[in-house]
Design goal:
- The chain has seven helices and seven strands.
- By secondary structure, the protein is α/β, with parallel strands linked by helices.
- The chain has a single domain, classed as Vaccinia Virus protein VP39 (Rossmann fold, 3-Layer(aba) Sandwich).
- The chain has a seven-stranded mixed beta sheet, with helices on both faces.
- Strand 4, helix 6 and strand 5 form a beta-alpha-beta unit.
- Helix 2 runs parallel beside helix 4, helix 5 packs parallel to helix 6 and helix 6 runs parallel beside helix 7.
- The chain is globular and about 60 Å long.
- 36% of the residues are buried.
- Bound molecules: S-adenosylmethionine.
- S-adenosylmethionine (SAM) binds next to helix 2 and strand 2.
Length: 210
Amino acid sequence: MDTNNRPYRFTRDWFSQTAAHWGQLFRNLQWDFEQPRTLVEIGSYEGSSAVWMLEHLARHPDTRLYCLDSFEGSIEHNAAEKAELRQRFDYNINTSGKAAQVEVLAGRSDDGLVQLLSRGIRADFVYVDGSHQAADVLADAILGWKLLKPGGLMIFDDYIWPVYQNQPLKNPKIAIDAFVNCHLDQLRFVVMPQRTQFGLLKLPPMEFTK
Ligand SMILES: C[S@@+](CC[C@H](N)C(=O)[O-])C[C@H]1O[C@@H](n2cnc3c(N)ncnc32)[C@H](O)[C@@H]1O
């Protein structure tokens, strides 16, 4: 992962494959990298995807990144993966030099999303990579979509996920499918470079005539 040679400390490499594609993806979507943006990340772990967003999507000093994480890890994480997670995240965000552009909402993502909605915050980009249990992903998708501005982008990680493959309630896929089916009139599919991810653009509301 291109980390601008800063001394980040990542113990897990869950983002470098994505990082290799996202620059081109955002250019294909004609993302204006110089504009102030509101970015929401559901699931930050130790900050590798957050740092990528800070380095690539947060060039404008008014861009804000909201990071929602319980910092307790997920059911698929072992004790070492969960240990001192918040400290590792804080270290990496501080190392980015852009900590002033980050607001952390520590706790359950559904609580954090409701909080952002009630504050009137609206997002240009929502990255959904928190809990991978289907019911949680469905809640993150529905609330994250409400946060998203028309024209905004939502990406789900792990649409195809090799973990808990035979236990659909513990896997994001059925939640993403259900969410998409219920919002078909509000979205456009984004062709993703990685089949494991799922991208959607939010359409403006339909105007109904009598
Ligand atoms: C797969 S990791 C995120 C990886 C990160 N996006 C990256 O690419 O480096 C999932 C994260 O979601 C968090 N998480 C799990 N369930 C959550 C929940 N219900 N609310 C908030 N965060 C949660 C975990 O603490 C963990 O840090």
